[in-house]
């Protein structure tokens, strides 16, 4: 199966740096404890075909290669410099490399922004020198790079074999772990490795673009601690994942940077969960355990995608069939429903006691003829209701467990599986408890590019990634993200006035923003004194005057109205309105005697339904992000929410509604009707377009929105205005990410 055909619009400049025709090793050394020694050994041992220029003012030769006292004396034309010297020397050396015409430099030294202000100043000086001379920087504080297909190994890492997995990792130890795991696996090899370090110049989005273009890389794999330009990364990821798989393991979170957020959305945004949702929205396969990284990268590299998430399981043991079924269901996959024709074919080759429902349990049918497993896999793969086939059990170990004479039949089974993999586009994934032993039949599968796993859990994670990727690609080509609406002059005027007064939008202003852009908002009035209550009752309480109303304080100084006693619900009748009005003013003045109170907002109570929240935050790393989930006062406790980067596509909006755990409630429970999901999706899309149109909108909370079978009602709306203090918060958050 070949990767999706495609190309990125511009060629990355990193090709010249990561596949250079000549390399200068600044700080080259004959001392085995120095990085300049290891880099020289790595280049020489790998047989690097380009020119090597050791730079050391105190040596004429380094490991048999002529050395030069400075970069300026090098006679050739190196494209890359590896700088192995201490941090204080780096800015001057970068300038020297730039004057020499070197295109890129790898900075190994630590002692820059990661240690504080003094190091940050040194890093800025280094970057200024680089930009002045047109040289690109990898690092500083990087573990280094390798490009095995070009025989470049600046880490002098032993026993790494060339392959098609490209790696970018902020942890050198993580690379070492993956390299050791690959040695044990025996099938996985690497194309390029880059340690981004502090990302002072080149960031994750640049490296991902390069791996997307690199024809030696079939799957890009990234270990990420923090993004500097997450928005740009998502854009590049969307382009790259259309052509080849991208696997990301994201450690940590940015929750500490959200402490100053002033809305429910702000309190929840910046979390690990948000990052995961945004990466998945761009087609990235996210893994949550470090031991999943290489298996998922291998599986996606070999198999690319599945049509969907329907998996057929065939097992030679009931216990493992049950475990596999449990793990598949937990991963969001489904056990495919086998057709009667498929079950009849299985009954024709298996013992009568075998189970032919999914999961298929051969019940001893293969003990004397293990190649029957391949026959069953072929039968299952031919079923139109099956997207992937998962073999679970002891294949490869029959000759070890039962009789050595079974080896020939196992090898015939392995060949049949190889033939099947070449004949079908459906992924075949194998778990064998004998995988660590590497018996001949499993080695044959490995050689042919069929993934074999020693863990049911890792195999299921691969199946999940294949299904997610297939579904993503199916909708990627059929939908575009929707752009913004045109901003309205009168709404811009409201934002300008709010900024001039140093406040956020009042609730009635926020609701006008929504209403003027086609979002249904209930009728409401602002009452500024008791004399206006009669008119409000007449217009809002119906002919009988008994329609229950909601009354809420309007004040720029009271953000959380309920906490201040500024909300009264189910108010019916003019006398009750007068009592509620006085109670709201009294409670709010007790809460904050200095608060400026403009009045009280009066609106009819919403009909019964499910409370949900829609929110927007302009995240400093990822840009505008929309949140949707279960609403009300418990949103921050339950955290049953989904995030998407703005602008949204219709598929994005639909998937948000289906992602939350409360989706069953939206579908109707205990006799309640299902809510109008189409209206809810339309609301999400309209909010997305509004945010794009108004850059002064910093945060938005619609909480709660009451949804029911007839549509929705925006009960409360809050818009926080972008102000001068926000950039400081953003810098703090970026430093913490």
Task: Describe what this molecule looks like in 3D.
- By secondary structure, the chain is α/β, with parallel strands linked by helices.
- The chain folds into 4 domains: 231 residues, 3-Layer(aba) Sandwich (Rossmann fold); 172 residues, 3-Layer(aba) Sandwich (Rossmann fold), CATH 3.40.50; 82 residues, ATP-grasp fold, A domain (Dna Ligase, domain 1, 2-Layer Sandwich), CATH 3.30.1490; 127 residues, ATP-grasp fold, B domain (D-amino Acid Aminotransferase, Chain A, domain 1).
- The chain is 38% helix and 20% strand.
- The chain is built from 26 helices and 30 strands.
- The strands form 6 sheets. Strands 9-8-11-10-12-13-14 form a 7-stranded mixed beta sheet, with helices on both faces.
Task: Determine the CATH topology of the largest domain.
Answer: Rossmann fold
What's the end-to-end separation, in Å?
38 Å
Task: Determine Rg (CA atoms, Å).
Answer: 31 Å
Number of domains: 4
Biggest β-sheet, characterized? 7 strands, mixed
Count, helices: 26
What is the helix content? 25-40%
> What's the CATH H-level homologous superfamily of the largest domain?
NAD(P)-binding Rossmann-like Domain
Beta strand count = 30
| Quaternary structure annotation | single chain
Uncertain segments: 1-6, 253-267, 725-737
Strand content: 15-25%
